[in-house]
Model the fold of this input.
Amino acid sequence: MSDFLTNPALVIVVAVADNGVIGADGGMPWRLSGDLKRVKSLTMGKPLIMGRRTYESIGRPLPGRTTIVLTRDPEFAVEGVVVVRDFAAALEAGARAARAMGAGEIVAFGGAGIYARALPLACRLYKTEVHVCPEGDTRFPDLDPRQWREISRQSQHGSEKDGPAHDFVVLERVEREES
Done:
């Protein structure tokens, strides 16, 4: 069995406004059709770890993916969703699901609390930088630029149909030098 199947990588998929906002009133403050297609291609066939509010904003398990919801709510139960009570359990469930699916990645999918827990452990960040500054109540944690290296960027022009201008960015964690 290959290494990525025994040790799937934790990655983050997120869309972030220029002011750090990722959410407003339980949803996203923009609609980007190209980003939705990108998210689908990045996450298909992989386990997704998300918080309960993120799950509720989506409203259903996404087809072709394993949905893992982290919540402290003991009453929360949804058919077709793996429910866990802490982040370690979410990672364990994600690793089991990734192996079963033949996926090399576990995806941290939001919201802010999930991202804050995943950021120190993630090796890659698939980020959509949305070039707006909306009001919002949920923010992405600050990135330490010394810990991340940009490996690709694709600029997307905004339009009335496709939403505001945005960039698809991939960042990889910088390897720590041993002293």
Q: What stands out?
A: The mean pLDDT is 93. Residues 3-173 form a domain with the Dihydrofolate Reductase, subunit A fold (CATH 3.40.430.10).
